[in-house]
């Protein structure tokens, strides 16, 4: 089905008609009749991520990212930790984008020293810095398509070429963009990770993760995922598979709404700055236009201080003050109190994640209603 458009593949790929059912049933069984298997991980057993629900979902996920293979995990962090801990060994070194998601940052900074894994953070748009920090033991380059919460756009084309030229595994977190707005495998990346809790599911009712990419790397990761125990429940598989079918419709609306809201906020006198790749004022706007098919539903804006930010969030009527993102409803959060709280005050200040920063996950509501809601809250 590769010749079909993404909109059509979202509906039809990975949808076996088992016993004639148009919608894939939930296979609640944990265990299955034993069949000869080449190795333990091929034994049909729910913890080994190989029920019919897992397998159908993997086919769909791989297809969305133009990847050879995919696996679904119990959360986005399960996907990230499986890739990082599953492919890096004691004595290895990794280059990571500076300003990454707080959970990934905490995993690297707090846990990697325990395993003897070295790391350096780098500017996602500075190949010269990547080269300067490259070591003989460097094994991986890790990026985010659009960063959380500063909406930095990484130079994925240069990053994948750098990784390839230096024999590194290239990994990118594509959660914020979704496969609708960017497909990094098509730009040369080896592996793509998602918090499927967000845009892929899209309804704020499932926690899940996904890894897509090279068949060889997924084959290496699968036994480790099974040992780490990051298995997604089959009912969650069912909900995620259902949610993915409307991904394109939702993201297109969120792209539109976020562009409208970002533009309105950028003209408001009480807003100090707006971070959104779709604005001409964004420092990587030209890059975003080149590598993204849409500018996304995520934006951040900054007000005077923490007190004002808290007051704005509490006074919104449509925007819900709650962590997470990618759902059909608009969500707001202050990164210094949620996603990036693990970072020190000094580290947040260095990155530009200040107390007055508000991150917005724009939903599919009417754009005019959303703009009115934020303008009222800012008064």
Structure description:
There is one protein chain. This protein has 379 residues and is α/β, with parallel strands linked by helices. The chain folds into two domains: 6-244, 3-Layer(aba) Sandwich (Aspartate Aminotransferase, domain 2), CATH 3.40.640; 248-378, Aspartate Aminotransferase, domain 1 (Alpha-Beta Complex). It has 14 helices and twelve strands. It has helices at 6-12, 52-64, 76-87, 102-115, 127-133, 156-165, 178-181, 215-228, 234-244, 247-266, 285-291, 306-315, 345-351, 367-378, and strands at residues 69-73, 93-97, 118-122, 138-144, 169-173, 191-195, 209-213, 273-275, 298-302, 320-321, 331-333, 357-361. The strands form two sheets. It has a seven-stranded mixed β-sheet, sandwiched between helices. A five-stranded mixed β-sheet has the order 8-9-12-11-10. Helix 7 (178-181) links the parallel strand 5 and strand 6 (191-195). Helix 12 packs across helix 14. The N and C termini lie far apart (51 Å). The mean pLDDT is 95.
What brief labels describe this structure?
alpha/beta; 379 residues; seven-stranded mixed sheet; 12 strands; Aspartate Aminotransferase, domain 1; globular; Aspartate Aminotransferase, domain 2; 2 domains; 15% strand; five-stranded mixed sheet
């Amino acid at each position: 089905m590769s010749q079909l458009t993404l909109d059509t593949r979202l509906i039809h790929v990975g949808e076996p008609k088992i016993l004639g059912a148009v919608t894939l049933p939930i296979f609640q069984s944990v265990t299955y009749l034993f069949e000869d298997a080449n190795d333990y991980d091929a034994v049909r057993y729910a913890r080994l991520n190989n029920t019919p629900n897992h397998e159908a979902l993997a086919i769909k996920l791989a297809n969305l990212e133009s990847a050879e293979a995919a696996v679904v995990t119990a959360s986005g962090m399960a996907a990230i930790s499986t890739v990082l801990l599953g492919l890096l060994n004691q004595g290895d070194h990794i280059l990571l984008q500076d300003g990454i998601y707080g959970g990934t940052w905490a995993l690297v900074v707090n846990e990697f020293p325990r395993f003897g894994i070295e790391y350096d953070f780098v500017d996602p748009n500075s190949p010269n810095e990547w080269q300067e920090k490259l070591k003989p033991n460097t094994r991986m380059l890790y990026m985010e398509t659009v960063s959380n919460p500063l909406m930095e756009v990484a130079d994925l084309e240069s990053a994948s070429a750098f990784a390839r030229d230096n024999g590194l595994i290239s990994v990118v977190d594509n959660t914020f963009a979704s496969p609708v707005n960017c497909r990094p495998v098509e730009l040369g990346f080896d592996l793509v990770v998602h918090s499927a809790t967000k845009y892929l599911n899209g309804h704020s009712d499932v926690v899940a993760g996904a890894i897509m990419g090279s068949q060889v790397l997924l084959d290496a990761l699968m036994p480790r995922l099974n040992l780490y125990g990051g298995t997604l429940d089959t009912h969650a598989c069912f909900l995620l598979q259902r949610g993915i079918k409307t991904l394109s419709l939702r993201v297109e609306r969120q792209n539109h709404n976020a562009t409208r809201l970002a533009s309105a906020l950028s003209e408001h006198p009480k807003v100090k700055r707006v971070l959104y790749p779709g604005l001409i004022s964004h420092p990587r706007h030209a890059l975003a236009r080149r590598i993204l098919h849409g500018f996304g539903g995520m934006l951040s804006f900054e007000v005077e201080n923490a007190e004002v930010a808290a007051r704005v969030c509490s006074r919104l009527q449509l925007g819900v003050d709650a962590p997470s993102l990618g759902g059909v409803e608009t969500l707001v959060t202050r990164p210094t109190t949620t996603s990036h709280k693990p970072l020190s005050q000094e580290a947040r200040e260095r990155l530009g994640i200040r107390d007055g920063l508000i991150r917005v996950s724009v939903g599919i509501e009417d754009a005019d209603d959303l703009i009115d809601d934020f303008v009222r809250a800012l008064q």
